[in-house]
Amino acid sequence: MSISDIHSQTGMNTRSIGWPQVAFGVLLASLLLIPLGIDNAFVSHVFITICLFAALSTAWNIVGGFAGQLSLGHAVFYGIGGYAGVILFNLGVTPWIGMFVGAAVAAVVGMVISYPCFRLKGPFYTLASIAFLEVIRVLSLHFKDMTGGATGMMIDLRLGWTWMVFRERWPSLLIVFGMLLVTLGVAWAIRRSRLGFYLVATRERESAARAAGVRTVRVRLIAVAISSALCAMLGTFHAMYLTYIEPAAMFSLAFSIQIAMFALIGGIGTVAGPLLGAALLVPITEWARASLGASALGLHGFVYGIVLIAFVLFMPNGIMGAIRRFARSGGKAAVEPAQTETGPIVAPAHTVAAPDPDRPGIGQDILKVENLNKRFGGLHVTRDVNFTLREGEVLGLIGPNGAGKTTLFNMISGFLTPDEGKVSLRGVDGQFHQPTNPADFAALGMGRTFQIVQPFAAMTVEENIMVGAFYRHHDERDAREAARETAWRMGLGPLLNAEARGLTIGGLKRLEVARVMAMQPRVLLLDEVMAGINQTDVRRAIDLMLSIRDTGVSIIAIEHVMQAVMSLSDRVIVLASGEVIAEGRPQDVVRDPHVVEAYLGKEFAHAHA
Amino acid sequence: MTTFLQVLLNGLMLGGLFAIVAIGLTLIFGIVKVVNFAHGEFLMAGMFVTWLITTRLGLHPYASVIIVVPMMFLLGALTQRVLIQPLMSAEDDHVQIFATVGLSTAMINLALLIFGADIANTPNFGLRTPIEIGPVRVLSGQLYIFIAAIILVAALQLFLKNSQTGRAIRAVAQHRVAAELMGVNVPRIYILSFGLGAACVGLAAVLIAPLYPTSSNIGTYFVLTAFVVVVLGGLGSIPGAFFGALVIGLVDSLSGFYIGSDLREAVVFGIFLLILILKPSGLFGKRMTLSHLS
C-alpha cells in the first residue's frame, strides 16, 4: 500500500491533469448530477447514502489508512455527532451549529480515548476501539434522560434549510455532497502535507519517524481529532436525514466495519480509495435491499463479507492498487520519474589528509556527555561515560561487539533515558540544553541513522527523504525539491520513485543517510553506515562524509570499517564493556595495548607486548 | 448472605461459560498469532447445528457433539488453509484483521439469510433444572459447562506438554522459523491448531445451546467478552484464559447485581480497556513475548 496515489506519478513540478484525475472528477460530478437529473426519490436516496459512506470512509481513512490505526469503533464519532445534533435540535439550536458542537465533542473524545491506545499495535488497537464503542453504546442506553435510551429519539418537526430537514431529497443531496467534497479536500490536503507524510512515516517505522523529528503522538492525535470531527459532522447530517436515532444504529459495530471496509476495498491509505469503494458497493446493496426486501435479510451483509474476503485475498491494495498496477504496466514511459535538472553533486575527490585533532575549523564544544550510566537489569551497559564533541569534528566511536556503542547512541539521541548522567547539546542560541526525547533532540539539530536500517517501506525513496526534509521545509514543494537534491547527492537520484522496500542493503544504507541529511542536522550520529557495503561504496561514503564535515556538521560515527575510521576521524573513542578505555588520535589509539586487548584478548596483547 | 453467595456462584458459573468460549480463541492466538474476529461466529454456527440436530432428530443436545466438534474442526482448518495461510506473510496487520472481520460479517449474515431473524431455542432436555447446593442453586447445564471447561483446560495442557504433536505446536508458537528449521511442518501445525481452537468452540457451542437461545448475532455477544477474558488472562495462555474468565464472570455477576444490569457490560469493557492500556501482558501473564506491543 504505497501512499503515493495519483499525484505522485505526476510529481509537483510536472503536475498535469492525467486520465485518473479526469476519471475521478467525472465520478465525483456524476454523484451529484445523476440523481439531480433523474429526480427519483429512491435514486436520490442511494446517492445520498453513497456520499455519506464515502465521506465517512474518507474521514476514517485519515486514522485507519494514513496513520495505520485500524479502528473498528468509528461509529462512536458518527453517533456523537448524531446525538449532539438531535439533542440540540430539540432544544431549538440549528444543526448547522449543532454539527460543530458534535465535532468538538467528538474530537475531544477521540483524542482522550486514542491517547492511551497508541502503544497498542495491530489487532489490539482494533480490539480497544471496539471496546470503546461498546462502552459508549452501553452508556448511551443507560443515560436515558439525555439519549432517550433504547427507544431512541425523534427530532421535532421543523422543516427548511435552517433545520436541515426537507420534504424533497435534493437539498439533503446537496448538503452531503458538499460535505463529501470538504472531507475529500481535507484528506487530500493532509495526504500531501507535512502532517500526512509524518503520519505515514509513523505508521511505517515509528522509531525512524521519531529520529526524523516527528512528534509521533502529537501527529496521531491531530489525525484522530480531524477524523472524528468530520465523522461527527456527517453523523449530525445523517440524523437530520433519518429524523430518528437510536443507540443500536448510531453506535453499531457493523456500521463501523462498513466504514472501514469501503476504504479497504477502494484502497486503504489513498485519497480516492474510500470513495471508489463506497460508489461500487453501496448501489449494489441498496438495490438488493429495495428489490429483494425482507426475503433478502442479511444478503447485503453476506455480500459485503464475501467481497471483503475476496479483496483481502486477491487485491489487498484495493481498487486503487489495481489501477496503479494497470497504469504502471500500461504506460511505463509515462510514469518514469520526472528527474530534476539538479545533476549529481560529486563529492570532492579528496586526497585524504592526515587527520589532526586541532585541524582549523574545529570549533567549540557542541555536545557534552557527562557520567552516563545505564543498566539493563544486572547488566551495566554504560559505565560513567564522559566525552565531548566539538563543532565540525569527526569523532570515531569503536569497540568490540556488545561494548554498548548503540546503547550510547540511543541515549544521546533521546531514545533511551540514562539511569544517571546527562547529555547536553548546544543549540543555535549558543546555550546548552538537555533534551529528553528524540523530537527535542531533533529540534536542536541532532540527526541519527540506525544500525539496522529503518526505511519507510511503503514509501518511495523520494518520499522517505522528504520525511527528513520536512523538518526544514514546511511546504511540500520545497521539501520535495530538497529531497531530490539530497537524493542526487547521495547517488540515489535514479531511484527516486522506487519503493524503499525494493532497495538493496547498500541502497538502504544510503537512504538512511540521505533521510537524515535532508534534515540538515548540526550533529550527526552515524551507526555503522559502512557495514556490509563494497569497497567502492566505502570510498564514496568516506568522500561523502568528508564533504558533510566540511559544511560544518559535527559527526559521531560508530564504525567497524577501519579504513574509514582511520581516514575520517579527528579523534577516536574506544568503548569496551560500557567503559571508555582509550581516547585520542586514531593512529595512537590503535596501538594502545588496552585497545588491542579489548579486541583480541589478553594473550594476543601479551604476545605482542 | 445467601444472595451474595448466589451472586458469587452465578459469577463462577458464568466464568466457566466464558472460559469454554475463550479457550479456543487464546489457543489460536497463542499459536497462529492471529486474532480470530470470527470466533464468535464459529460459536454461533455450532449452536445452530446443535439446534438443528436436536430439533430435527430429537436427540439430546449433548449427543450432537459427535457431529459438531469434527465439523468445527474442519471449518477451522479450512479457514486457516484458505483464508489465513495466504496472508501469513502479509506485511500489514490490517490484511489479517480484515480477513477474519470479513469472515465474521459473512457468517452472521449467512445465518440471517438461512435462519431469519427469529431466535432458535434448543430443547434443554432438563439441563435447565436447578441443582441445590446448600442454600444456593445452579442450573445443571451450567455446572456441566464449568466441569467441561476444567477438563478441557487440563486435557489441552496435557496434550501440549506431553505429546509429540503438542511439543511441535509449542515449538511453532515460540519460534516459527526455528521450528521450521528443526523439521516441523509449520503450515500443518497451523492448520491443526486453528482446527483445534475451532473444535474447542464447537464443544462450547454444544454445551451452551440448550441454555441460551441461538440467533445470528449471538456470537458477537459472547466473543466480545471472550476477547476481554483472553487479554486479561494473557494472550495465548490457556490457564490464564480460564482464570481470566472466572474473574470476568464474577465481575459481571457482581456488577450486574450491585451496580445495575444495564451497566455490567460497561464495567467489563472498562476493565478490558484498563488491562489493555496498563498491563497488556494480562493479569497472570508471565514474561511472555509481547507481540502486541511496540
Automatic annotation (TrEMBL), chain A:
<feature type="transmembrane region" description="Helical">
    <location>
        <begin position="99"/>
        <end position="118"/>
    </location>
</feature>
<feature type="transmembrane region" description="Helical">
    <location>
        <begin position="219"/>
        <end position="241"/>
    </location>
</feature>
<dbReference type="Pfam" id="PF00005">
    <property type="entry name" value="ABC_tran"/>
</dbReference>
<keyword id="KW-0067">ATP-binding</keyword>
<feature type="transmembrane region" description="Helical">
    <location>
        <begin position="75"/>
        <end position="93"/>
    </location>
</feature>
<keyword id="KW-0813">Transport</keyword>
<feature type="domain" description="ABC transporter">
    <location>
        <begin position="367"/>
        <end position="602"/>
    </location>
</feature>
<dbReference type="InterPro" id="IPR051120">
    <property type="entry name" value="ABC_AA/LPS_Transport"/>
</dbReference>
<feature type="transmembrane region" description="Helical">
    <location>
        <begin position="44"/>
        <end position="63"/>
    </location>
</feature>
<dbReference type="InterPro" id="IPR003439">
    <property type="entry name" value="ABC_transporter-like_ATP-bd"/>
</dbReference>
<keyword id="KW-1133">Transmembrane helix</keyword>
<dbReference type="InterPro" id="IPR043428">
    <property type="entry name" value="LivM-like"/>
</dbReference>
<feature type="transmembrane region" description="Helical">
    <location>
        <begin position="170"/>
        <end position="190"/>
    </location>
</feature>
<feature type="transmembrane region" description="Helical">
    <location>
        <begin position="294"/>
        <end position="315"/>
    </location>
</feature>
<dbReference type="InterPro" id="IPR003593">
    <property type="entry name" value="AAA+_ATPase"/>
</dbReference>
<keyword id="KW-0812">Transmembrane</keyword>
<keyword id="KW-0472">Membrane</keyword>
<feature type="transmembrane region" description="Helical">
    <location>
        <begin position="125"/>
        <end position="143"/>
    </location>
</feature>
<dbReference type="Pfam" id="PF12399">
    <property type="entry name" value="BCA_ABC_TP_C"/>
</dbReference>
<feature type="transmembrane region" description="Helical">
    <location>
        <begin position="253"/>
        <end position="282"/>
    </location>
</feature>
<feature type="transmembrane region" description="Helical">
    <location>
        <begin position="21"/>
        <end position="38"/>
    </location>
</feature>
<dbReference type="InterPro" id="IPR001851">
    <property type="entry name" value="ABC_transp_permease"/>
</dbReference>
Automatic annotation (TrEMBL), chain B:
<dbReference type="Pfam" id="PF02653">
    <property type="entry name" value="BPD_transp_2"/>
</dbReference>
<keyword id="KW-0029">Amino-acid transport</keyword>
<feature type="transmembrane region" description="Helical">
    <location>
        <begin position="189"/>
        <end position="212"/>
    </location>
</feature>
<keyword id="KW-1003">Cell membrane</keyword>
<dbReference type="InterPro" id="IPR001851">
    <property type="entry name" value="ABC_transp_permease"/>
</dbReference>
<feature type="transmembrane region" description="Helical">
    <location>
        <begin position="218"/>
        <end position="235"/>
    </location>
</feature>
<feature type="transmembrane region" description="Helical">
    <location>
        <begin position="266"/>
        <end position="285"/>
    </location>
</feature>
<feature type="transmembrane region" description="Helical">
    <location>
        <begin position="65"/>
        <end position="84"/>
    </location>
</feature>
<feature type="transmembrane region" description="Helical">
    <location>
        <begin position="12"/>
        <end position="35"/>
    </location>
</feature>
<dbReference type="InterPro" id="IPR052157">
    <property type="entry name" value="BCAA_transport_permease"/>
</dbReference>
<keyword id="KW-1133">Transmembrane helix</keyword>
<protein>
    <submittedName>
        <fullName>Branched-chain amino acid ABC transporter permease</fullName>
    </submittedName>
</protein>
<comment type="similarity">
    <text>Belongs to the binding-protein-dependent transport system permease family. LivHM subfamily.</text>
</comment>
<feature type="transmembrane region" description="Helical">
    <location>
        <begin position="96"/>
        <end position="119"/>
    </location>
</feature>
<keyword id="KW-0812">Transmembrane</keyword>
<keyword id="KW-0813">Transport</keyword>
<feature type="transmembrane region" description="Helical">
    <location>
        <begin position="139"/>
        <end position="160"/>
    </location>
</feature>
<keyword id="KW-0472">Membrane</keyword>
